[in-house]
Design brief:
The structure holds two protein chains of two kinds.
Chain A: H1 7-23, H2 32-44, H3 63-75, H4 85-98, H5 101-113, E1 117-121, E2 137-141, E3 144-155, E4 160-168, E5 180-186, E6 192-197, E7 206-217, E8 221-222, H6 228-231, H7 243-262, E9 264-265, E10 268-269, H8 274-302, H9 311-332, H10 351-356, H11 360-363, H12 369-380
Parallel strand pairs in A: 1-4
Antiparallel strand pairs in A: 2-3, 3-7, 4-5, 5-8, 6-7, 9-10
Helix pairs in contact in A: 1-3, 3-7, 4-5, 7-8, 7-9, 8-9, 9-12
Chain B: H1 7-23, H2 26-32, H3 41-49, H4 68-80, H5 87-100, H6 103-114, E1 120-123, E2 139-143, E3 146-157, E4 164-170, E5 178-184, E6 190-195, E7 204-214, E8 219-220, H7 227-260, E9 264-265, E10 268-269, H8 274-302, H9 308-334, H10 345-355, H11 362-372
Parallel strand pairs in B: 1-4
Antiparallel strand pairs in B: 2-3, 3-7, 4-5, 5-8, 6-7, 9-10
Helix pairs in contact in B: 1-4, 4-7, 5-6, 5-7, 7-8, 7-9, 7-10, 8-9, 9-10, 9-11
Classes of the chains: A alpha+beta, B alpha+beta.
The complex binds flavin-adenine dinucleotide.
Residues 120-123, 128-129, 153-155, 206, 360-361, 364-365, 367-368, 370-371, 374 of chain A line the site of flavin-adenine dinucleotide.
Chain lengths: 386, 375
Amino acid sequence: MDFEFTPEEEAFRGEVHKFLDENLPAEGGRDPASVAKWNKLVREKRWVGFSWPVEVGGGGGDIMQQVVLKEEMARRKAPPLGSCFMGLAWVGPAIIEYGTEEQKQKFIPDILDGKYQWCTGYSEPDSGSDLASLKCKAVRDGDHYVVNGQKIWTSIAMWSKWMILLVRTSANPDDKHDGITCLLVEMDSDGLEVRPIKNMAGGAMFAEVFFNDLRVPVENRLGDEGQGWRVTISALAHERSGIAEIHGLLRSLEAITELARTCRKNGKPAVEDPGIRRRLVKAGTRIEAMRLNGMRFLTKQLKGEKVGPETSINKLHRAALEIELGELALEIQGSAAPLMKGAADVPDDGRWQTFALSWPEVVIGGGTPNIQKNIIAERILGLPKD
Amino acid sequence: MNFGFTEEQDLLRAELRKFLDQNASLEQVRKQVESPEGFSRPLWTRMAELGWVGLTIPETYGGVGMDFVTLVVVLEETGRTLFPSPLVSTVLAAKAIEKLGSAEQRQRWLPGLADGSRIGTLAVLEASDRLDPEGIELRGQPQGDGFVLTGEKRFVSDAGKADLFVVAFRTGDGAEDVGLAVVERDTSGVSADDQPSMDLTKRVGRLLLDGAAVDAGAILGEPGVAWPTLAWLLDVGAALVAAEMVGAGEGALRITTDFAKERVQFDALIGRFQGVKHPLAEMYVDIESYKSLVYYAAWALDQDSDDAPLAVSRAKAYASEALPRIGIDGVQLHGGVGYTWEYDIQLYLKRSKWARPAFGDADYHYERLAALGGL
Ligand SMILES: Cc1cc2nc3c(=O)[nH]c(=O)nc-3n(C[C@H](O)[C@H](O)[C@H](O)COP(=O)(O)OP(=O)(O)OC[C@H]3O[C@@H](n4cnc5c(N)ncnc54)[C@H](O)[C@@H]3O)c2cc1C
């Protein structure tokens, strides 16, 4: 066991430090201009798409460098590396792996530059956890696919220029994963309509998307026809430690601990309440367990072993923590908990109320806890499928 | 960066597994605990010959000189089959002597502990059941160059078979005026025996000291300044018990999972029902998570890292909450047979009851984390 970094890794960390010292925009003053400047600088450093191959314009960073970079960025609360969130997270990796030369040239530089947003059209009203049952239909017509059907929960659909879309091109009664095809769709096409959905926090960041004889050129198919399921599961060597998320959780916990020092419960600072204390340290313990689990996954990856279903461990922890931290922040506030932003007596201008209404983004959006437990039970413990 | 084991450590694990598969199936373990001492002497001696008893004792004193991370490998394996042995007790006694004892004292006791001929244990807790210095009320009355000890130590692991007890005693009225003495079993005024206890694989008992005289040669270090070392030993104890809890958790999960793959109800393997498979997945999540915390705690102790107490408390707190739950869920998921003496899952439930309070339960460690974290 050894938690030391090599001299090369430490040198790289030094380089990151130096860059941050010189270029990190102050936390208060993150206006669009300074963020645009930041985006340009990190793009020039090739830290956007840092793990992507150099040939496509990525940084070619190895796994440990990714860890160092993400850790330092998170520690210094730096803005994200690049602004095309889904493009960087999964659309880009899928195009790099399965795309044609033309597709790579057309899309990858724009993703790296953050020219526009991508959205993800996977879920349908009747296909959520059971995604492979999807029915949105595409029929080949000459050089085009004609798409009819509906998607739902499509995050940021209304602000996106392109969508990665899963459609059904054929049905195999023995295997529903077969016959799914992946298309890249321009959002301002005819036959495509976006209807935003308001969420329980009051915002609208996801939408329904309707397709009515939408015509998609065949050249915008990603991967082979019928192979869409494979295309969406990236095999690129991403680091799997979840470092960035852990830092986010730690920052929330720190802020909630501060809240517990200022809010009073039964005439004393809430932090002195045994129940609150216990929950604060328990959350911290769970985050530390996530960090160390991540280190173990990383060690496996560095040894060239595959890391797969065990990442559901940290997804379950994270889901539980997103809910618990929100609840804790509200309970610390006592009777102020049901107030909202703008109320005279709400701490931190209602930040925690919004926080406590946002957990579904992680808990439901990323595959529900029940599904994560199925993955562990079936793929790790070898229990029968349900 | 490598949060994994070395090739030697992997080899050690394989050897242990083979040894325990041959000698410590749960069926064999059940027989071993029936003996008066509650364990198998011949196996203990064999383990000592293989270097596993003296694993963490320095080579100069007949041990192998390995670190705690390596010992964790051993304890995960012994925990898995609930193997009864005074290993943790003996390691702790040896560490006390190694850390505070003079060269002469080490030479006197460590080789016997390393070769398995003598068994050692720590005697700290008293009626107050407190792990802090105030909990140590047993007074040492100065006499000659040593002390006379009178009082009672409780919840002493392996009290019935230990040959030497590392006894914590009070030397003065200052909060941390605590000394450590090595008290041999055959000293006049010493009596110790095991008490009836729930987990038959872990013997616990009482040590009665009635005017037991210890001379300067039996006092470890300067009298009255042993608390920091004792606090460290308690952390080591918590980490080692938690390491055995990793193995015990895996053992319980394993037999419950196997059961769920065999038992049929409603024309289906019960492992197909989510009311069965999800608790099993949760057990897995918890075990893997406190495993990570335990590995790190052992490493932090080895490195003498500043965050070792934090790391130990996180590991023991998590394990102390999780393993009892695993024991209960394990029994419940077996249905009626889970409640029988015959089925093995109950053995794990009982282990969790022993392990939970040992060196501090979740309440204790979470509160310590809160205090250490400045809450
Ligand atoms: C904030 C947010 C953003 C999202 N963004 C996107 C996006 O950009 N693109 C996109 O395609 N999708 C997106 N989604 C959709 C998301 O992937 C789905 O909501 C999710 O997969 C669950 O599907 P569902 O909503 O249909 O629920 P269902 O699958 O109907 O689940 C309902 C309940 O049943 C349980 N359940 C279902 N199957 C099982 C089973 N086999 N065993 C046990 N329990 C089961 C679930 O755990 C859940 O509790 C987003 C969702 C949210 C909340």
